[in-house]
Design brief:
7-stranded mixed sheet, alpha/beta, about 300 residues, 4-stranded parallel sheet, binds zinc ion, globular, single chain
Length: about 300
């Protein structure tokens, strides 16, 4: 499960959603009635698209006194479909609201902006003949999923320094550890562990949660910190190569990944509110050192590295 947040200001943009396959009928336009939602609540899907970015609306020149209006309803690659009811904290962009008939079809580009910072983030489509959906702009949002893991890590740390390996784990957690835990030589070590990784002796294992059941990966010995499966997969296996969909003629043996995976636009940043509510759940009666961290983040919810 992930929550998408505004890439510009960090405001939460969606409810918690789980990835599902993009319905085959997502590009369908049918009849003149209002259609149902493209996706069930609580889910999202990624549309690999046709590789062409938004084509701005351009009326054809007037000919014989008749103006032919043409438009193409398309969007950027890897746009994210979500049920309209799962969207949070957006406002309409009035000049982008356009449609054919009974609602909006997104022909002028993103028509929803982040309510906090005003950046265009998504496109609401609900005109007749279209499956109702909100398309999140892939560059305008990012998944937020590390705050819960950070709260687990803090409780496990018992208020003492934790070392993290270089790479994506350090990028996600080290700044939080630096700002919340005391300095000094680390006493414990956080290491990625899970399916597909070679087993190592770990002190604190950062392991994935099953994407459907939420069950924590059971293979690690010692203390575990559970992490959302899609974030864990990125940290464990992403090598920063940008993959392109290949149309034809790809030789055997070439690495295949089509459509390209959904990659984060910026560093993973823990969400302050999610972090605080998880701490309250994990440690209802906190020790004084943990209470101090709770109060610090509550009083300064956007302190680095929180969002
Ligand atoms: Zn209509
Ligand atoms: Zn924003």
């Amino acid at each position: 499960m992930v929550v998408f947040a505004c890439a510009e200001c960090g405001a939460v943009m969606t409810a918690r959603v789980a990835r599902v396959a993009l319905p085959d009928h997502s590009g369908q336009k049918y009849g003149h009635d209002l259609l149902a939602h493209l996706l069930r609540p609580g889910t999202y899907a990624v549309d690999p698209g046709n590789g062409r970015p938004w084509q701005p609306f351009e009326p054809e020149p007037e000919e014989h006194g008749v103006r032919l209006l043409t438009y193409r309803i398309t969007g950027p690659s890897n746009r994210i479909a979500i049920a309209p009811g799962d969207v949070r904290g957006t406002v309409f962009i009035p000049e982008r609201l356009g449609g054919c008939c009974c609602g909006w079809d997104g022909q002028y580009g993103p028509n929803l902006a982040c309510a906090k910072c005003g950046c265009p983030v998504a496109t609401r489509v609900d005109d007749c003949g279209f499956w109702q959906v909100v398309w999140l702009q892939p560059d305008a949002v990012r998944p937020v999923a590390v705050a819960v893991a950070l709260a687990h890590l803090l409780v496990i740390s018992a208020g003492r320094r934790v070392a993290v390996p270089e790479g994506p784990v350090a990028a996600a957690f080290r700044r939080a550890i630096d700002s919340l835990l005391p300095t000094g030589p680390p006493e414990r070590q956080l290491v990625l562990a899970g399916p597909g990784l070679s087993p190592t002796i770990t002190d604190i294992a950062l392991v994935p949660k099953h994407p459907q059941t939420g069950e924590v990966w059971p293979g690690a010995a010692g203390t575990v910190v559970p992490l959302a499966a899609d974030v864990w997969t990125y940290m464990a296996f992403n090598d920063d190569r940008r993959l392109m969909p290949a149309a034809r003629g790809m030789p055997a043996g070439v690495r295949r990944d089509d459509p390209p995976p959904l990659l984060p636009h910026t560093l993973f940043r823990p969400d302050g509110r999610v972090f605080l509510s998880t701490l309250e759940r994990l440690a209802p009666v906190p020790q004084p050192w943990l209470r101090r961290i709770f109060d610090l983040v509550r009083d300064r919810p956007y302190m680095d590295p929180f969002s």
